[in-house]
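Blinded run. Sample ID left blank on purpose so nobody reads anything into the name before looking at the predicted structure. Input follows.
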Amino acid sequence: MPTPTYRPRLADACRRLGVGLAHALYDVQTLHSERMPTEGPVIVVSNHVGFLDGPLVFVFAPRPLRFLVKRSYFGSAWGVFLRATGQIPIDQNNADRAALGAAREVLTSGGGLGIFPEGTRGSGAVHTAQQGAAFLAQATGARVVPVAVLGTKGRGGRDSWPRLRAPLRVVVGEPFALTKHRGVPGRERLRLATEELRSRLASHVDAATRETGLTLTATMPE
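Blinded prediction complete.
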């Protein structure tokens, strides 16, 4: 599957529509958006607990982002939206060179890239991370911005959605550059970078839950 053409005006229109829809359905707030660099290449990494994580970060991020998205979603009802906004399909079962190449082009042109390092929905606490985000950060020198998404999973199970008007939060963290481990073999350097990224994202998610008083599962105020 070729990478969809990115059309900035269409993507911006979709973001505005998404913001309006999200506010109509939920109590959504973005915290610390000023932390996001407005220029230069950035990799936004987020925890992943609910289906709404991707759409929320896409529409509420302070700058346009293109995401690496599981290829199978492009064949679903969401495929039209994903193609229209120029998201990048990736095969998570192997080293997808085409997807990584497209992602690298986004960064070398000074753009913003979104990645969920956990790879799939889980607890959202970031106990594990795949290597793609760290690899791209090392290859391009892009800064990494951790983002915590809270409240996007309902109480009914893995595929449950939050109840209407539930509080959802998108909390932007401080950008950072991965440590350069000079003289360390490539595979070990990537392993160390991946663990650093995972640890810093996990710490940010923990800090965001304490700051907001929300958990990773959607709750309604008393």
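Unblinding after everyone has recorded impressions. Strands lie at 27-31, 42-46, 66-70, 88-90, 112-115, 143-150, 167-172.
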